[in-house]
Specification:
The chain is an alpha+beta fold. The chain has 9 helices and 24 strands. The strands form 5 sheets. Strands 1-2-3-4-5-6-19-7 form an 8-stranded mixed sheet. It is globular.
């Protein structure tokens, strides 16, 4: 089969996307996800972010029947290093062309391309998690959602919280300050993505049809007065000196009333902070907004501090789901790129049917300072598929747990425990936003 052909018998053509085809291609994607049109501002943003030479379309004559894209990301891995990764996105197959090899062909071409681009990782978020394991993706991060009854739950905050000042600001006016906070956070947690120019607009998207009765996005800054980066800012009473911006929260408020009075909902979009006191100050503010009794949060880290500060976790209705799916495209380069919190010296027997260049034995030797990973003929200590390596790669999924599930075989006694400790991360990996 030719490289750019899905099936000669079906006369389907697979090729890179041209700019003049984007509207047709994107409409195909929207239809596959239910056909509800997006707001013009959202559509324009995704058009501007699309990397055309890294996006694929499958065509049946003039009709687009398959879509897949990739963004050029820098992804934080354990050790605080940013690694080149392909952010797989906008994957769809028209309902008329299911079970004809369209998805498999796009995944095959895409991973070949990612390898050629020299990116050792591919990552994605999945509308249906069952799809991507057969292509070597493992679930590498999880996320928390919560519905917190703030009328009955109290927050215990750390020392220094009262030294943080909060102020409202127009989200667009303080975008640069918020992005500076985010940029400083990226290296601190595996799974976070360094935002390239244009991506800062994602946090300001606020289409009217997405609000469902809630307010436009609001923003509150956390400042430390007398900080090293004090600046002159505009205030309600004229110019004044503002402190160092150490955090922010973006949210909507949905007013609601019942027979007992106000029962509004705070719909949290994002919270980022540079230290525990600033983070606690922002959460305490969210808990105490007038005329509200609930905070709804989505896509938060598994180990976020508020969960250990609340008076009653059961009234927070915490749920956990998968987030970032990770695929090692180049096993050696990927395992060398991160560090290990305890010394590791282990030989993996890797199975990878979809990307056979990864299959075979690899010796990984590393510690907190760095690592090397190269092919070897030495006896294997652990046997697993590339899917399990992807799941464990960011440090949030234990190799030992995968072993207990029968997904990793221990061939040398003690090797599984040693590798599990080394691969772990001191903070839970987290993907802060979708793509």
């Amino acid at each position: 089969m030719a490289k750019d052909s899905v099936s000669e018998a079906d006369r389907l053509e697979l090729r890179a996307l041209r700019q003049d085809e984007w509207d047709i291609w994107y409409d195909t994607l929207i239809r596959a996800f239910g056909g509800v049109a997006e707001a013009a501002e959202e559509r324009e943003l995704w058009n501007s972010l699309t990397e055309f030479d890294r996006s694929l379309g499958v065509w049946d004559a003039d009709a687009c029947v398959g879509t897949a894209g990739a963004f050029s990301f820098r992804l934080t891995v354990p050790g605080g290093v940013a690694v080149n990764a392909a952010g797989v996105t906008m994957v769809s197959v028209a309902a008329t062309h299911r079970r004809r090899g369209v998805l498999t062909s796009m995944m095959r071409r895409q991973l070949d391309d990612v390898r050629e681009w020299g990116r050792p990782l591919a990552v994605l978020t999945a509308s249906e998690p069952a799809i991507y394991g057969r292509f070597g993706y493992g679930i590498g991060t999880h996320q928390v959602s919560a519905e917190i009854d703030t009328s009955r739950v109290r927050l215990s905050v750390p020392p220094g919280t009262d030294d943080v000042r909060l102020r409202y600001a127009a989200p667009a006016d303080v975008l640069d300050a918020c992005e500076a906070v985010y940029a400083r956070r990226v290296s601190r947690r595996p799974g976070m993505i360094a935002r390239l120019p244009g991506w800062e607009r994602l946090g300001l998207l606020d289409p009217q049809n997405d609000r469902e009765g809630a307010s436009p996005i609001q923003c509150v800054l956390a400042e430390r007065i007398g900080g090293s980066e004090a600046t002159s800012v505009e205030g309600g009473g004229g110019r004044r000196v503002g402190g160092e911006v150490v955090g922010y929260a973006r949210f909507r408020v949905k007013p609601e009333w019942d027979g007992n009075g106000p029962s509004g909902v705070v719909l949290l979009r994002d919270v980022q902070a540079l230290d525990p006191a600033a983070e606690a100050a922002l959460w305490r503010f969210l808990f105490g907004i007038d005329l509200t009794s609930t905070v709804k949060a989505w896509s938060r880290p598994l180990d976020e501090a508020w969960q250990y500060q609340v008076s009653d976790i059961r009234r927070c209705v915490v749920r956990v789901k998968d987030a970032l799916h990770v695929r090692l495209v180049d096993v050696g380069a990927a395992l060398e790129a991160r560090t290990y919190q305890a010394p590791v010296d282990v030989v993996f027997e890797v199975e990878d049917d979809f990307c056979p260049w990864n299959a075979g034995r690899w010796r990984l030797s590393g510690d907190a300072k760095g690592a090397s990973c190269a092919r070897t003929t030495d006896a294997a200590d652990l046997a697993l598929s590339v899917r399990e390596l992807g799941a464990a790669y960011l440090g949030g999924v234990s190799l030992a747990a995968l072993g207990a599930a029968g997904r990793v075989r221990e061939l040398r006694q003690g090797a599984l425990a040693e590798a599990s400790v080394g691969f772990a991360s001191t903070v839970a990996p987290w993907l802060p936003h979708g793509f």
